[in-house]
Amino acid sequence: MVFGDVHDLLLAAHGPQRWWPAESRFEIIAGALLVQRTTWRSAEKALAALQGRRMLDPVTLAAARAADIESCIRVAGFYRSKAARLKKLSQFVVDCGGTDALADEGTDRLRERLLRLDGIGAETADAILLYAFARPVLVIDAYLRRFAQRLAGVGAAIADDEIAAWILAEIDSVPKLNELHALVVAHGKSHCRKQPRCDDCGVRALCRSARP
DNA sequence: CACCAGGGTGGTT
DNA sequence: AACCACCATGGT
Questions:
Q1: pTM surpassing 0.85?
Q2: What is the pLDDT of residues A174-205, one digit of tens each?
Q3: Nucleic chain B contacts, Cβ below 7 Å
Q4: What's phi and psi for A55, nearest 5 deg?
Q5: Given 3-state DSSP classes, what are the helix, strand and coil percentages for chain A, each rounded to the nearest 5?
Q6: How many angstroms is C1' of B6 away from CA of A6?
């Protein structure tokens, strides 16, 4: 079993996920921060509230009062930290000359700059690189780590960089990397929890209820 | 009532 | 390097 097969099986079971739902690069960037440790449903409400007040752009958010951002994004949880971080992130985008200017940066340099920001770790940085800037990077989340552990066998203890090297050797195109992460999330989110036996997903080893 | 959701940070061992 | 508590709301 390899990850090329995982991509194909999950795609057959769940269908195309159409990520990332957004109308602009900045909306993806802001959404990537807001969706941390919450549901997309909640993050979407926070984005809609910002949009409703015409605050969903880097210039406005960078100059906004924390309290005004907080009142919009409370639904997404951790609203105090997220508001401060969203403001800093927006200031960063402004300082760089906007999202189009950021799109001219090399992937490695852009990743390092994102990781330096407050509240942007490896997963969020890679999600931004992949979904906002169409860079061929692998987004590693808790689901994917568990999948890799199971596929590697018990007592493997694989590091993130090994997971990346493994999967990127098989999947290196942006469309497939885009779909893979979306499918991994979709699979872990609804399918296996509601149907613990997971008879029709085609990847039983990846089901939440499956024992390693 | 407990548990989880498209994480990250800072402190302790 | 591997844990840990914490951040906080909303849904099941």
A1: yes
A2: 999 999 999 999 988 755 554 444 555 666 66
A3: A 19-21, 31-32, 35-40, 42, 77-78, 81, 117-125, 127, 131, 141-142, 185, 188-189
A4: -110, 0
A5: 65, 0, 35
A6: 19
